[in-house]
């Protein structure tokens, strides 16, 4: 079995509300819009989501992978998506935990990606030459870059968006 793995764990504290943070990290459209490398996220039947991801790997070039995930936890303190039960090759697990801290929210992010193939050539014809370790190291670097960029963009979006003043909207002449 040929396996490529990458994991990422981090936390950030944002000046926002628990509700806004949870809503933002629960809306997968934000990932598609703000995370480099995500080519799309589609909803499918039965609560399944299909993430299409592209990453550049030296020597091999662009690697495209489709991850089918389903929500496995949806509580006020935690959101989690795990590989769909039918998935056998491309595994993606993403979790976000939320903790209110005064006027801020601590968000803990964990993501694990794994590509499994029977043989290296099933991933790419040059994968055997590069090897699992080198491809995994490069994938780790790319996953880190993708999520760091996403979290920076999330910070900007959540901390700079002004809440709508509903009264001012209602009182303004149309």
Set down the secondary structure blueprint.
Elements: E1 2-14, H1 18-26, H2 28-34, E2 38-43, E3 48-57, E4 61-75, E5 78-83, E6 90-101, E7 104-117, H3 127-130, H4 132-160, H5 166-171
Antiparallel strand pairs: 1-7, 2-3, 3-4, 4-5, 5-6, 6-7
Number of helices: 5
Strand order of the largest sheet: 1-7-6-5-4-3-2
> Might you state the CATH topology name?
Alpha-D-Glucose-1,6-Bisphosphate, Chain A, domain 4
Order of secondary-structure elements:
EHHEEEEEEHHH
- The total strand number stands at 7
Mean pLDDT: 88
Unreliable spans are: 164-174
**Whole-number radius of gyration?**
19 Å
Return the domain count: 1
Report the span from N to C terminus: 64 Å
| CATH architecture call | 2-Layer Sandwich
The best one-word shape is globular
Largest sheet: 7 strands, antiparallel
Instruction: Please identify the top-level CATH class.
Output: Alpha Beta
| Proportion of residues in helical segments | 25-40%
Structure in words:
By secondary structure, this protein is an alpha+beta fold. The protein has a single domain (about 1-160), classed as 2-Layer Sandwich (Alpha-D-Glucose-1,6-Bisphosphate, Chain A, domain 4). The protein is about 30% helix and about 45% strand. The protein has 5 helices and 7 strands, in the order βααββββββααα. A 7-stranded antiparallel sheet has the order 1-7-6-5-4-3-2.
């Amino acid at each position: 079995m040929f396996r490529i793995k990458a994991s990422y764990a981090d936390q950030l504290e944002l000046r926002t509300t628990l509700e806004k943070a949870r809503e933002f990290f629960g809306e997968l459209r934000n990932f598609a819009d703000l995370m480099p490398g995500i080519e799309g996220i589609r909803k499918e039947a039965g609560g399944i989501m299909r993430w299409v991801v592209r990453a550049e790997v030296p020597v091999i070039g662009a690697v495209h992978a489709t991850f089918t995930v389903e929500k496995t936890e949806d509580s006020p303190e935690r959101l989690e998506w795990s590989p769909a039960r039918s998935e056998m090759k491309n595994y993606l697990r993403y979790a976000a935990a939320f903790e209110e801290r005064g006027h801020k929210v601590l968000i803990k992010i964990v993501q694990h990606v794994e590509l499994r193939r029977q043989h290296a050539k099933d991933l790419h014809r040059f994968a055997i030459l590069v090897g699992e370790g080198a491809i995994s190291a490069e994938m780790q670097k790319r996953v880190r870059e993708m999520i760091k960029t996403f979290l920076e963009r999330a910070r900007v979006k959540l901390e700079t968006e002004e809440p709508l003043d509903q009264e001012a909207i209602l009182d303004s002449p149309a």
